[in-house]
Design goal:
The protein is α+β, with helices and mostly antiparallel strands. It folds into two domains: 4-128 and 306-341, D-Maltodextrin-Binding Protein, domain 2; 138-302 and 376-414, D-Maltodextrin-Binding Protein, domain 2 (3-Layer(aba) Sandwich), CATH 3.40.190.10. The protein has helices at 34-45, 61-73, 89-94, 103-106, 115-120, 143-148, 159-168, 181-193, 216-231, 243-251, 263-274, 279-283, 317-327, 330-340, 353-358, 362-371, 381-391, 402-414, and strands at residues 4-5, 8-9, 11-12, 23-28, 51-56, 81-84, 122-123, 126-127, 130-133, 138-142, 173-174, 257-260, 285-288, 306-310. The strands form four sheets. The chain has a six-stranded mixed β-sheet with strand order 3-5-4-6-14-9, with helices on both faces. The protein has a four-stranded mixed β-sheet with strand order 11-12-10-13. Helix 8 crosses helix 9 and helix 17 packs antiparallel against helix 18 (402-414).
Length: 420
């Protein structure tokens, strides 16, 4: 099955497999080439013990899941290592597709790692994958606009304060309203920030899952969306906007506030250096932690990132775990954060001078990761996430009935009474 991505046809390697060393196939999410560079470096560092080749998955998280699950369900031995979105770790583990992490490596993969990343790489109390990078969303803003609105962003702010500020300045708040995973990220973050949980018993079987969407926290999330729409601050094309679209809107002065991942800083810097965005706009970038639902109650920002698992069907599991130790090393996490803009899972990386120079908001990222809440961990994540995306979109349709309607819809899907 051929996949065209980032200029590679399925595998991107340095040809070292031709030397006779065992080849380890690492299936990765698309990036700026950082994982391929790590694969090449670890292959060289192995002294001929193995050679890692990279196979690039589709850019869409759901398509990544579909392709991996299809191969793994067929006991495909061509997969040795796989980069997994944390939300798919429970399903992959529950299906028996992940090789158990040896006892002697459990501490290696968790010591000094932010707690949210460890949680995202675990299932039923056991570490089943190795945290590689641990993303989180920040609140980005134009310093000049925030100042004009009288908004003090040296302190945590609420969604309502942002709405009022954006409305007073005739600007927008960049959010991801697309019917996709990004919508689930937003809804889950607001519910978690309001003290709730999308799923209250994540280890349960589908029909027995208790959802917490139709709750005070769920209604608070719906109120934020409705307030944004009523105030006219969602910005143009909100229902088709993903993270990249939101970043572009912010760069093009279509929104003075935005919730998004840290990649937007590197993207903005590149645009300013390349002359496609005025340097003054980039110099006006500000950042702080994620908006709170209520004053005095800290937010629970979105948690993302990538965990790496070893396939249960790998013909070289010992070598795969050896390679995995190299891939997630402190040195490689730091290099990957600088080259590709993806925050490290290891806390010590944020003390690296090169990381601090490339990301002056490193302390804010670290603080956000410490407060972040993962999306629901369940073997039925696809059904829950798609159900949220279907029922909380378009943004203009969200109101007080949305939490109850969406919860009932997802429960029907989990009981097998309705198809997504």
């Amino acid at each position: 099955m051929a996949v065209l991505a980032a200029g590679c046809l399925v595998s991107c390697g340095d040809g070292s497999a031709a030397t006779g060393a065992p080849t380890l196939n690492w299936y990765v999410n698309p990036d700026n080439g950082g994982q391929a560079r790590i694969a090449e470096q670890c292959s060289a560092d192995s002294g001929g013990a193995y050679a890692i080749e990279v196979s690039i998955l589709p850019s869409d998280a759901a398509q990544q899941r579909e392709q991996l699950m299809r191969r793994l369900a067929g006991n495909d031995t061509s997969i040795d290592l796989m980069s997994l979105d944390p939300v798919f770790v429970p399903e992959t583990s529950e299906a028996g597709f992940l090789a158990p992490i040896p006892e002697e490596l459990q501490q290696t993969f968790t010591e000094g790692v932010v707690q949210g990343a460890v949680q995202g790489a675990s299932w039923k109390g056991e570490l089943v994958a190795a945290p590689f990078w641990a993303n989180t969303q920040l609140l980005w803003y134009r310093r000049s606009v925030a100042e004009a609105a009288g908004l003090d962003l040296s302190q945590p702010v609420t969604w309502q304060q942002l709405i009022d500020a954006a409305q007073s300045q005739g600007t927008a708040i960049g959010v991801q309203g697309q019917r996709a995973e990004s919508m689930t990220v937003w809804v889950n973050a607001m519910i978690a920030s309001a003290g709730g949980q999308v799923i209250e018993n994540p280890e349960a079987k589908g029909p027995d899952i208790r959802l917490g969407i139709d709750s005070g926290a769920g209604r608070a999330a719906a109120e934020v969306m409705a307030a944004m729409d009523e105030a006219g601050v969602t910005g143009p094309g909100v229902d088709n906007r993903d993270e990249a679209g939101t970043a572009n809107l912010f760069q093009q002065d279509g929104a003075a506030f935005m919730v998004n991942w840290p990649f937007v800083y590197a993207q903005g810097r590149a645009a300013a250096e390349g002359g496609t965005m005025d340097q003054a706009i980039f110099d006006d970038y500000g950042w702080t932690t994620y908006p709170a639902m209520e004053a005095g109650t800290p937010a629970a920002p979105p948690l993302g990132g990538i965990d790496i698992g070893v396939s249960a069907f790998s013909e070289n599991p010992d070598l795969a775990f050896e390679a995995l130790q190299c891939i997630v090393s402190e040195e490689n996490q730091a290099a990957y954060m600088v080259s590709d803009g993806n925050p490290a899972a290891l806390e010590s990386v944020y003390d690296d001078p090169q990381v601090q120079e490339a990301y002056p908001m490193y302390d804010t990222i670290r603080a956000s990761l410490e407060a972040a809440a993962p999306r629901p961990q369940t073997a039925y994540y696809n059904e829950v996430s798609q159900g949220i995306a279907d029922q909380w979109q378009p943004v203009s349709s969200v109101g007080e009935a949305t939490p109850e309607r969406s919860q009932e819809y997802i429960q029907q899907v989990l009981r097998g009474e309705k198809l997504l």
